[in-house]
What we know:
By secondary structure, the protein is α+β, with helices and mostly antiparallel strands. It has helices at 3-11, 20-30, 132-138, 164-182, 202-211, 252-265, 282-285, 313-329; strands spanning 36-39, 45-49, 56-62, 67-73, 79-84, 96-101, 104-112, 123-126, 144-147, 152-153, 158-161, 188-194, 215-223, 242-246, 269-273, 294-301, 309-312.
Amino acid sequence: MDRELLKKFIETPSPVGREDELIKLVVESTKSLAEDYIYDNQGSVSVVYNKKAPFKVMLMAHADEISLVVNGYNPNGTLKVSKNGGVREKLYNGVKVKIITEKGYVNGVMGVVDKDKIEADDLFVDIGCFSSEEAKDIVPLGSYVIHDTSFMELQNNLFSGRALDDRLGVFVIQEAAKMALRLKAKAGIYATSSVGEENTGRGAYSSSSIIKPDLAIIVDVTYSSDYIGNPAKGDINIGKGGVICLGSLVNRKLNKLLEETAKELGLPIQYEVWPGRTSTDGDTINRTNDGTPTVLFSIPIRYMHSPVEVASFNDVDTMIVILAHFLAKLSSDIDLHPYRF
Ligand SMILES: [Zn+2]
Protein backbone atom coordinates (compact mmCIF):
# COMPACT_ATOMS: atom_id res chain seq x y z
CA MET A 1 0.00 0.00 0.00
CA ASP A 2 1.19 3.49 -0.84
CA ARG A 3 0.97 5.11 2.62
CA GLU A 4 2.14 8.48 1.32
CA LEU A 5 -0.74 8.56 -1.16
CA LEU A 6 -3.18 7.52 1.57
CA LYS A 7 -1.90 10.37 3.74
CA LYS A 8 -2.35 12.79 0.84
CA PHE A 9 -5.98 11.69 0.35
CA ILE A 10 -6.69 12.30 4.05
CA GLU A 11 -4.95 15.67 4.26
CA THR A 12 -6.64 17.11 1.17
CA PRO A 13 -9.65 19.32 2.03
CA SER A 14 -12.97 18.23 0.49
CA PRO A 15 -15.95 19.74 2.33
CA VAL A 16 -19.37 19.01 0.82
CA GLY A 17 -19.70 21.58 -1.95
CA ARG A 18 -15.93 22.03 -2.44
CA GLU A 19 -14.66 18.53 -3.20
CA ASP A 20 -12.61 19.83 -6.16
CA GLU A 21 -9.13 19.35 -4.65
CA LEU A 22 -9.73 15.71 -3.80
CA ILE A 23 -11.38 14.99 -7.16
CA LYS A 24 -8.27 16.47 -8.79
CA LEU A 25 -6.03 14.22 -6.69
CA VAL A 26 -8.09 11.14 -7.69
CA VAL A 27 -7.56 11.99 -11.36
CA GLU A 28 -3.85 12.78 -10.98
CA SER A 29 -3.10 9.62 -9.00
CA THR A 30 -4.83 7.30 -11.49
CA LYS A 31 -3.62 8.80 -14.79
CA SER A 32 -1.09 6.11 -15.62
CA LEU A 33 -3.70 3.30 -15.76
CA ALA A 34 -7.12 4.88 -16.29
CA GLU A 35 -8.73 4.49 -19.71
CA ASP A 36 -11.22 7.26 -19.22
CA TYR A 37 -12.92 9.56 -16.73
CA ILE A 38 -16.65 10.15 -16.52
CA TYR A 39 -17.77 13.32 -14.76
CA ASP A 40 -21.32 13.96 -13.67
CA ASN A 41 -22.71 17.47 -13.43
CA GLN A 42 -22.59 17.36 -9.64
CA GLY A 43 -18.80 16.96 -9.53
CA SER A 44 -18.33 13.21 -8.98
CA VAL A 45 -15.72 11.47 -11.09
CA SER A 46 -15.60 7.84 -12.19
CA VAL A 47 -12.21 6.37 -13.13
CA VAL A 48 -12.84 3.87 -15.90
CA TYR A 49 -10.96 0.61 -16.52
CA ASN A 50 -11.85 -2.07 -19.12
CA LYS A 51 -13.97 0.51 -20.88
CA LYS A 52 -15.19 -1.81 -23.65
CA ALA A 53 -16.55 -4.50 -21.31
CA PRO A 54 -20.36 -4.72 -21.51
CA PHE A 55 -20.71 -5.82 -17.87
CA LYS A 56 -20.19 -2.79 -15.64
CA VAL A 57 -19.29 -2.75 -11.97
CA MET A 58 -19.37 0.49 -10.03
CA LEU A 59 -17.13 0.88 -7.00
CA MET A 60 -18.21 3.90 -5.02
CA ALA A 61 -16.87 5.91 -2.10
CA HIS A 62 -17.75 9.48 -1.21
CA ALA A 63 -15.14 12.20 -1.57
CA ASP A 64 -16.89 14.82 0.56
CA GLU A 65 -16.28 15.53 4.23
CA ILE A 66 -18.44 17.19 6.87
CA SER A 67 -17.60 20.82 7.62
CA LEU A 68 -18.97 24.15 8.77
CA VAL A 69 -20.00 26.92 6.39
CA VAL A 70 -19.74 30.65 7.08
CA ASN A 71 -23.22 32.16 7.22
CA GLY A 72 -22.62 35.58 8.76
CA TYR A 73 -20.37 37.94 10.71
CA ASN A 74 -20.42 39.15 14.30
CA PRO A 75 -19.71 42.88 14.96
CA ASN A 76 -16.43 41.91 16.71
CA GLY A 77 -15.07 40.32 13.51
CA THR A 78 -15.73 36.66 14.29
CA LEU A 79 -17.53 34.44 11.77
CA LYS A 80 -20.93 32.83 12.27
CA VAL A 81 -21.31 29.27 10.98
CA SER A 82 -23.86 26.59 10.19
CA LYS A 83 -23.47 22.83 9.86
CA ASN A 84 -22.60 21.24 6.51
CA GLY A 85 -23.30 17.54 7.15
CA GLY A 86 -23.51 15.60 10.41
CA VAL A 87 -21.29 17.87 12.50
CA ARG A 88 -20.97 17.24 16.27
CA GLU A 89 -20.92 20.77 17.70
CA LYS A 90 -19.26 19.95 21.02
CA LEU A 91 -16.12 18.73 19.22
CA TYR A 92 -15.33 22.30 18.16
CA ASN A 93 -14.30 23.40 21.62
CA GLY A 94 -10.69 24.59 21.54
CA VAL A 95 -9.74 23.55 18.01
CA LYS A 96 -7.87 25.06 15.08
CA VAL A 97 -9.61 25.36 11.70
CA LYS A 98 -8.81 26.32 8.11
CA ILE A 99 -11.18 28.19 5.86
CA ILE A 100 -11.13 27.60 2.12
CA THR A 101 -11.29 30.80 0.05
CA GLU A 102 -10.51 31.60 -3.57
CA LYS A 103 -7.32 33.33 -2.39
CA GLY A 104 -6.13 30.34 -0.34
CA TYR A 105 -6.56 29.02 3.18
CA VAL A 106 -7.29 31.32 6.08
CA ASN A 107 -6.34 30.21 9.61
CA GLY A 108 -8.83 30.33 12.44
CA VAL A 109 -9.60 29.12 15.93
CA MET A 110 -13.01 28.10 17.21
CA GLY A 111 -14.85 29.83 19.97
CA VAL A 112 -17.73 28.03 21.64
CA VAL A 113 -20.35 29.54 23.98
CA ASP A 114 -19.89 27.83 27.36
CA LYS A 115 -23.18 25.98 28.01
CA ASP A 116 -24.43 22.40 28.38
CA LYS A 117 -26.10 21.79 25.02
CA ILE A 118 -24.00 23.40 22.30
CA GLU A 119 -25.67 24.12 18.94
CA ALA A 120 -24.30 25.55 15.70
CA ASP A 121 -25.41 29.05 16.76
CA ASP A 122 -23.06 28.76 19.74
CA LEU A 123 -20.00 28.33 17.51
CA PHE A 124 -17.92 31.09 15.98
CA VAL A 125 -14.60 31.34 14.18
CA ASP A 126 -11.93 33.84 15.22
CA ILE A 127 -9.60 34.68 12.33
CA GLY A 128 -8.02 37.63 14.13
CA CYS A 129 -10.21 40.42 12.74
CA PHE A 130 -11.62 43.35 14.73
CA SER A 131 -14.73 44.15 12.66
CA SER A 132 -17.28 42.40 10.46
CA GLU A 133 -16.20 44.53 7.47
CA GLU A 134 -12.60 43.37 7.81
CA ALA A 135 -13.66 39.72 8.20
CA LYS A 136 -16.00 39.92 5.18
CA ASP A 137 -13.15 41.06 2.96
CA ILE A 138 -11.02 38.08 3.91
CA VAL A 139 -13.63 35.31 4.19
CA PRO A 140 -16.64 35.60 1.85
CA LEU A 141 -20.07 34.36 2.90
CA GLY A 142 -20.51 30.65 2.09
CA SER A 143 -16.86 29.72 2.66
CA TYR A 144 -16.19 26.27 4.09
CA VAL A 145 -14.46 25.65 7.42
CA ILE A 146 -12.64 22.39 8.17
CA HIS A 147 -10.68 21.10 11.14
CA ASP A 148 -6.96 21.80 10.91
CA THR A 149 -5.58 18.40 11.91
CA SER A 150 -2.93 16.34 10.23
CA PHE A 151 -2.54 12.63 9.54
CA MET A 152 -0.86 10.77 12.39
CA GLU A 153 0.39 7.21 12.85
CA LEU A 154 -0.46 5.48 16.14
CA GLN A 155 0.61 2.21 17.79
CA ASN A 156 -0.33 -1.22 16.38
CA ASN A 157 -0.57 -0.11 12.76
CA LEU A 158 -3.40 2.33 13.52
CA PHE A 159 -3.63 5.90 12.24
CA SER A 160 -5.73 8.97 12.83
CA GLY A 161 -6.95 11.78 10.62
CA ARG A 162 -9.74 14.19 9.80
CA ALA A 163 -12.66 12.75 7.83
CA LEU A 164 -11.40 9.28 7.07
CA ASP A 165 -15.15 9.20 6.32
CA ASP A 166 -14.98 8.59 3.48
CA ARG A 167 -11.75 9.74 1.87
CA LEU A 168 -10.20 6.54 3.15
CA GLY A 169 -12.88 4.73 1.11
CA VAL A 170 -11.90 6.78 -1.95
CA PHE A 171 -8.32 5.56 -1.52
CA VAL A 172 -9.46 1.94 -1.02
CA ILE A 173 -11.60 1.80 -4.18
CA GLN A 174 -8.87 3.30 -6.36
CA GLU A 175 -6.28 0.84 -5.05
CA ALA A 176 -8.70 -2.10 -5.37
CA ALA A 177 -9.49 -1.20 -8.98
CA LYS A 178 -5.77 -1.06 -9.86
CA MET A 179 -5.12 -4.40 -8.18
CA ALA A 180 -8.11 -5.97 -9.96
CA LEU A 181 -6.54 -5.01 -13.29
CA ARG A 182 -3.36 -6.83 -12.26
CA LEU A 183 -5.56 -9.86 -11.48
CA LYS A 184 -6.94 -9.64 -15.04
CA ALA A 185 -10.47 -8.63 -14.06
CA LYS A 186 -12.70 -8.69 -17.13
CA ALA A 187 -15.61 -6.53 -16.01
CA GLY A 188 -15.77 -2.83 -16.76
CA ILE A 189 -14.68 -1.10 -13.56
CA TYR A 190 -16.00 2.36 -12.69
CA ALA A 191 -14.30 3.60 -9.51
CA THR A 192 -16.50 6.53 -8.57
CA SER A 193 -15.63 9.23 -6.07
CA SER A 194 -19.04 10.70 -5.34
CA VAL A 195 -19.78 14.16 -3.99
CA GLY A 196 -22.43 15.44 -1.59
CA GLU A 197 -23.05 12.21 0.34
CA GLU A 198 -22.95 13.89 3.73
CA ASN A 199 -25.90 16.16 3.05
CA THR A 200 -27.87 15.17 -0.05
CA GLY A 201 -26.48 12.01 -1.71
CA ARG A 202 -26.62 13.79 -5.05
CA GLY A 203 -23.35 12.55 -6.61
CA ALA A 204 -24.20 8.88 -6.20
CA TYR A 205 -27.51 9.34 -7.99
CA SER A 206 -26.09 11.21 -10.95
CA SER A 207 -23.06 9.00 -11.60
CA SER A 208 -25.10 5.82 -11.39
CA SER A 209 -27.76 7.26 -13.71
CA ILE A 210 -25.12 8.08 -16.33
CA ILE A 211 -23.08 4.86 -16.15
CA LYS A 212 -25.95 2.44 -15.47
CA PRO A 213 -23.81 -0.19 -13.74
CA ASP A 214 -24.95 -3.80 -13.50
CA LEU A 215 -24.07 -3.72 -9.82
CA ALA A 216 -22.49 -1.42 -7.25
CA ILE A 217 -20.05 -1.96 -4.41
CA ILE A 218 -20.15 0.83 -1.84
CA VAL A 219 -17.13 1.36 0.38
CA ASP A 220 -17.80 3.67 3.31
CA VAL A 221 -16.76 3.75 6.95
CA THR A 222 -18.72 2.31 9.87
CA TYR A 223 -18.71 2.50 13.65
CA SER A 224 -16.42 0.15 15.53
CA SER A 225 -17.59 -1.06 18.93
CA ASP A 226 -14.15 -1.07 20.57
CA TYR A 227 -14.41 2.22 22.44
CA ILE A 228 -16.58 3.49 25.28
CA GLY A 229 -19.88 5.06 24.20
CA ASN A 230 -19.83 3.75 20.63
CA PRO A 231 -23.09 3.53 18.63
CA ALA A 232 -22.00 0.42 16.62
CA LYS A 233 -24.47 -2.08 15.16
CA GLY A 234 -22.48 -5.17 16.04
CA ASP A 235 -19.29 -6.48 17.59
CA ILE A 236 -16.80 -4.64 15.37
CA ASN A 237 -13.14 -4.01 16.08
CA ILE A 238 -10.68 -1.97 14.11
CA GLY A 239 -7.87 -4.17 12.83
CA LYS A 240 -10.15 -7.19 12.47
CA GLY A 241 -11.21 -6.67 8.88
CA GLY A 242 -13.70 -4.96 6.59
CA VAL A 243 -17.37 -5.04 7.60
CA ILE A 244 -20.02 -6.72 5.47
CA CYS A 245 -23.49 -5.21 5.85
CA LEU A 246 -26.39 -7.58 6.44
CA GLY A 247 -29.84 -6.17 5.76
CA SER A 248 -32.65 -5.84 3.25
CA LEU A 249 -30.89 -3.30 1.04
CA VAL A 250 -27.90 -5.43 0.11
CA ASN A 251 -27.97 -8.09 -2.61
CA ARG A 252 -27.86 -11.52 -0.97
CA LYS A 253 -26.02 -13.30 -3.79
CA LEU A 254 -23.35 -10.63 -4.11
CA ASN A 255 -22.91 -10.51 -0.36
CA LYS A 256 -22.32 -14.26 -0.30
CA LEU A 257 -19.75 -14.00 -3.08
CA LEU A 258 -17.93 -11.23 -1.21
CA GLU A 259 -17.91 -13.35 1.94
CA GLU A 260 -16.64 -16.42 0.04
CA THR A 261 -13.88 -14.36 -1.56
CA ALA A 262 -12.59 -13.24 1.85
CA LYS A 263 -12.74 -16.80 3.18
CA GLU A 264 -10.86 -18.23 0.18
CA LEU A 265 -8.14 -15.65 0.73
CA GLY A 266 -8.06 -16.41 4.46
CA LEU A 267 -8.61 -12.70 5.22
CA PRO A 268 -10.75 -11.44 8.10
CA ILE A 269 -14.21 -9.91 7.72
CA GLN A 270 -16.77 -8.70 10.23
CA TYR A 271 -20.50 -8.10 10.07
CA GLU A 272 -22.96 -5.36 10.94
CA VAL A 273 -26.73 -5.34 10.66
CA TRP A 274 -28.65 -2.45 9.13
CA PRO A 275 -32.20 -3.73 8.50
CA GLY A 276 -33.25 -0.73 6.36
CA ARG A 277 -31.37 2.34 5.25
CA THR A 278 -27.61 2.27 5.73
CA SER A 279 -26.90 6.04 5.77
CA THR A 280 -24.48 5.59 2.87
CA ASP A 281 -24.51 6.14 -0.91
CA GLY A 282 -25.95 2.60 -1.04
CA ASP A 283 -29.37 4.00 -0.09
CA THR A 284 -29.28 6.25 -3.16
CA ILE A 285 -27.61 4.04 -5.73
CA ASN A 286 -29.92 1.15 -4.92
CA ARG A 287 -32.84 3.19 -6.28
CA THR A 288 -31.19 4.17 -9.54
CA ASN A 289 -31.77 2.53 -12.93
CA ASP A 290 -33.67 -0.77 -12.56
CA GLY A 291 -32.75 -1.08 -8.87
CA THR A 292 -28.98 -1.41 -8.92
CA PRO A 293 -27.88 -4.53 -6.97
CA THR A 294 -25.71 -3.23 -4.15
CA VAL A 295 -23.28 -4.47 -1.52
CA LEU A 296 -21.81 -2.40 1.27
CA PHE A 297 -18.30 -3.20 2.51
CA SER A 298 -17.24 -0.80 5.26
CA ILE A 299 -14.02 0.27 6.92
CA PRO A 300 -14.35 0.15 10.72
CA ILE A 301 -13.36 3.40 12.41
CA ARG A 302 -13.45 4.93 15.89
CA TYR A 303 -14.83 8.42 16.67
CA MET A 304 -16.93 8.92 13.53
CA HIS A 305 -17.47 12.54 12.47
CA SER A 306 -14.66 13.82 14.68
CA PRO A 307 -11.34 15.45 13.68
CA VAL A 308 -9.48 12.42 15.01
CA GLU A 309 -11.12 9.39 13.42
CA VAL A 310 -8.99 6.26 13.89
CA ALA A 311 -8.58 3.28 11.52
CA SER A 312 -6.15 0.42 10.90
CA PHE A 313 -3.69 -0.01 8.02
CA ASN A 314 -4.37 -3.76 8.32
CA ASP A 315 -8.06 -3.27 7.46
CA VAL A 316 -7.20 -1.03 4.53
CA ASP A 317 -4.77 -3.63 3.22
CA THR A 318 -7.05 -6.64 3.53
CA MET A 319 -10.08 -4.83 2.14
CA ILE A 320 -8.17 -3.79 -0.99
CA VAL A 321 -7.13 -7.41 -1.61
CA ILE A 322 -10.64 -8.80 -0.99
CA LEU A 323 -12.26 -6.19 -3.22
CA ALA A 324 -9.73 -6.76 -6.02
CA HIS A 325 -10.34 -10.52 -6.02
CA PHE A 326 -14.09 -9.96 -5.78
CA LEU A 327 -13.93 -7.67 -8.81
CA ALA A 328 -11.94 -10.29 -10.70
CA LYS A 329 -14.76 -12.81 -10.16
CA LEU A 330 -17.58 -10.61 -11.41
CA SER A 331 -19.11 -11.23 -14.84
CA SER A 332 -22.48 -11.37 -16.53
CA ASP A 333 -22.71 -15.06 -15.51
CA ILE A 334 -23.87 -13.97 -12.07
CA ASP A 335 -27.63 -14.03 -11.55
CA LEU A 336 -28.21 -10.89 -9.53
CA HIS A 337 -31.92 -11.42 -8.91
CA PRO A 338 -32.10 -12.12 -5.17
CA TYR A 339 -35.08 -14.50 -5.38
CA ARG A 340 -34.51 -16.35 -8.67
CA PHE A 341 -33.07 -19.77 -7.90
ZN1 LIG B 1 -19.50 8.27 5.01
